[in-house]
Structures are given as C-alpha cells and as structure tokens.
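for the writeup, i need someone to sanity check this before i put it in the appendix. the sequnce is what the collaborator sent (i think, or maybe the updated version? ugh). structure was predicted straight from it, no edits. if anything looks off just tell me and ill rerun, i have time this weekend
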Amino acid sequence: MVTQPRFQLRAFCHLDRIQPQFAAFVGKIASGAPAIEGMSSLYVEMAPGNWVFQVMDKVLKAADVLPGAQIVERQFGMFEVHSMSQADVHRAAQVVLEFLEQPLESRIAPVIASEQIITNVHPSQAQVLNRINMGTMIEGGQTMLVMEVEPAAYITIAANEAEKAAPVFLNHMSSVGVYGRMWMSGTESDIRAAREAAASALDSIVGQ
C-alpha cells in the first residue's frame, strides 16, 4: 500500500503492438530483456523513484512478462515490461494499480512541452546529430521532428503511434527525467502525419 502523501503515478501507458523502428531502438538501449516487434508493452513512471523496485517485484511475481527497463534517477523512477501476450501485459497493468491502490485516472496526463519540424535538414547538422544518435541515422535533406513530452515516459507511446501512421525513422528517444524526447526523420509529408498521430495518442490519455 502506498502511504507516502507525496507519491505520484506520473505516467502509465500501454503500447499495444511495438513497431519495428521502436523495437530496434529500445532493443539497443535496453538494460533488461529486449522487446521485439509485435510485442505489447507497459511503461510506468512514478515518484519517489525508489517505488519502482517494489512495484516491479510485484508485477514480475504476478504476471508472465519480461522486464526491459528499471531506472531510478534523481527525481523519478520508470520501468517497462513486455510480452507477446497483450493479456499478460494487461494483467501486469492491473497488478500495478491494485498494489498502488490508485485508479488509472490518478496518472498525470501528458503535455507536449515543445515540438519542432525542421525541413530539408542540412547535411552538416545531420552529421552532428548522428554523433549522439542511438537509432537510425539522419540524412541531409530529410525532414526532422523534435518533440518533448512531460511526464517523460509518455514519449514512448508518442513514438510508437507516430511510426504506425507513417514510414518514419526513429533516430533518438529518451524516456527518463523531467521530459521525454524523440527525434524522427523522413519525408515532410510522413513527418507531419507522424506528428499528428503522436499528438492524437497523447491527447487521448486521460489523467490529472
């Protein structure tokens, strides 16, 4: 039972079917079992961050899911679990809410903190970006979407839903800290379609 008054269920989101670019990216950075395309996934972010250890323990003992990430940083904690079975991931989600004695609506609703669309990326800037890029390389002449979301973990559903909407490339994603960030690249029309899908997915999440 959560008794600390300052506890926050910051983010709680279910990815129904992980897309190829998303799967490749998180597989590269995963600290735990890497997810693959087609799996279902659950991301949970909370504060204080140390709650992650106990909640993850309850989930893994009650649901047939694999842990992909368990991160505790200065302010917040985040974990991810996944499975080929959506039913098992839904069970994991139920375990989290039951253990925390929190309704789904107690989560914080996501907000897009900033966004930019950069058309015809200069080749020199593409090369600079690629030095720290963990995903698909950005090419000069492509259009680039940069998006920041708060709470951070919601950037995952934004990226996954964007990829469903258009054949874009996931260049970079960070889902921990104050803000979640992603870079995507592709044609201008595909990037604009991806942006609309990401924004729509975030807008559909009900919370405080």
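Residues 188-203 form the longest helix (16 residues). Residues 173 and 182 are 4 Å apart (CA to CA).
thx in advance!!
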